[in-house]
Design brief:
Rossmann fold, alpha/beta, 43% helix
């Protein structure tokens, strides 16, 4: 079972997306801010991280930079999840180290395609 770390501060968005991913067979690990997300990624070693960019404590850009700079987490794919859909936001997310980018509200089939492309099922 693939494990996804969902870093999202909005409780409604976090609950809805985690349920949708769980129904698709993923194990979902939750974090409510960037600092918790970095700690959870180090501890849990998920197959992929879904990173909201506008987060309290530590934003998603900074959290992604820390994950990509750490030998223990640098190979974990990070997908930016954001309502930031302005010109330049994709480039800014990629510069921070995100491997891909999806806008909110989440298009689940599109997001699942990105997850499939960036992660492989763990061998048992």
């Amino acid at each position: 079972m693939r494990r996804i770390l969902l870093v999202e501060d909005n409780e409604l968005n976090r609950d809805m997306l985690s349920r949708r991913l769980s129904h698709r067979g993923f194990q979902v690990i939750l974090a409510g801010d960037g600092r918790q997300g970095v700690e959870a990624a180090r501890r849990e070693q998920p197959d992929v991280v879904l990173m909201d960019l506008s987060l309290p404590e530590m934003d998603g850009w900074q959290a992604t930079r820390l994950l990509k700079a750490d030998a223990a987490t640098c190979t974990i794919p990070v997908i930016a999840l954001t309502a930031h859909a302005m010109v330049g936001d994709l480039e800014k997310a990629l510069e921070a180290g995100c491997d891909d980018y999806a806008t909110k509200p989440v298009n689940l089939p599109l997001l699942l395609g990105i997850i499939d492309r960036l992660s492989a099922p763990r061998s048992a």
